[in-house]
C-alpha cells in the first residue's frame, strides 16, 4: 500500500470521528447552557479551550464573545477559517474519501458526499437556525453510519486498519479533551454553584457528550461521583470510547499494519510510543484521576496523541503534514 493512499485512509478516519465528536460536544454544551444554572461563558469558553480554538476565536471576535453561544456555534460549525469547524472537517473527510473511492464501499462514499452537500444547502442552514438539535443529530448519525458501513462492508485489511487507526487516535484525543473541558468548567464554578446537584448534572452531561450515559449508569448502578465518572472514561477497558480502550485498539491496529517482530521495517518508533502510552494507561493509579491531578493526565494523553500522529506521518505516510 503506497503512503499517499495510507495517508488518505488515516485522515479520512480522523476527520469523520472529529466531525461526530464536535457535533456531539456542541449539542451537549448547548443543552447545558439552556438547562443548567450556569453563565454562558462557563459553558462555551471551555469548549473553545479544549478544541484548541480559544486564541483564534479571541483574535477574530474578542474574548468577551466567548460568552455568546450563537457566535461560538457559528464559528465551530461554518467558519471557513476554522480548520476544526464542522463544515471544514466534513469537507476534508470528503476530499480524502474522493481520493480513495476505489477502496471504499459505494454506500460510504454516497453518505459522505450527501453529508457534505447537505451542509452546503439551504436546508442545513434552516435546520441550524430553527432545529439545531436535529442539525447536530444529522451530522452525528451520518458520521456513525459511515463508521458502521466501513466495519460491516469493507475488507478487513490494510486500508481499514489505517482508517480505524485514525478513528481510534482521534477518539482517544477527543475523549481526553471532553473530560478536560469539564475540568475547566468545574474550576469556573462559583461557591453558590458548587453543590452536589450541579456536579451530578455536569458529570451526566459529560457522559452524554461521550455517548457513555447508559453504559456508565449500568456499570455504577446509577451512582454518580466524580471518581467513578473519571475512572470510567479513562480506565474502563470495555467501553469503546474510553481512553484506555482507544489506546489499546490503536496499538492493535498499528501491530496489524506493522508487526512488532518486523524490526527491519519502518514504524518502530510509532509502535514503541503507542505501546508505552497503552501500558502507562493500563497501570494508571486511581489517585491520578483525582480532581487535582487529572488535568495533567489528560494533557499528557493529548500531547502523546499529537506526537504519535506525527511519528505515524513520518514513518508510514510519507511525512505528509496536516
Description:
The chain is mainly alpha-helical and 322 residues long. It has one domain (3-315). It has helices at residues 3-35, 40-50, 54-61, 69-77, 86-99, 106-119, 122-130, 132-153, 158-187, 196-209, 213-219, 226-235, 243-257, 268-282, 294-315. Helix 6 packs antiparallel against helix 8 (132-153) and helix 13 (243-257) runs antiparallel to helix 14. The protein starts with a helix and ends in a 7-residue tail after the last helix.
Task: Write out key terms for the chains shown.
mainly alpha; 322 residues
Brief synopsis:
The chain is mainly alpha-helical and 322 residues long. The chain has one domain (3-315).
Q: With helices defined by DSSP (H or I, 4 residues minimum), what is the helix count?
A: 15
| Count of structural domains | 1
Helical percentage: over 70%
C-alpha-based Rg, rounded: 19 Å
Sheet-strand content, in percent, reads under 5%
Overall average residue pLDDT: 91
- Distance linking N and C termini: 20 Å
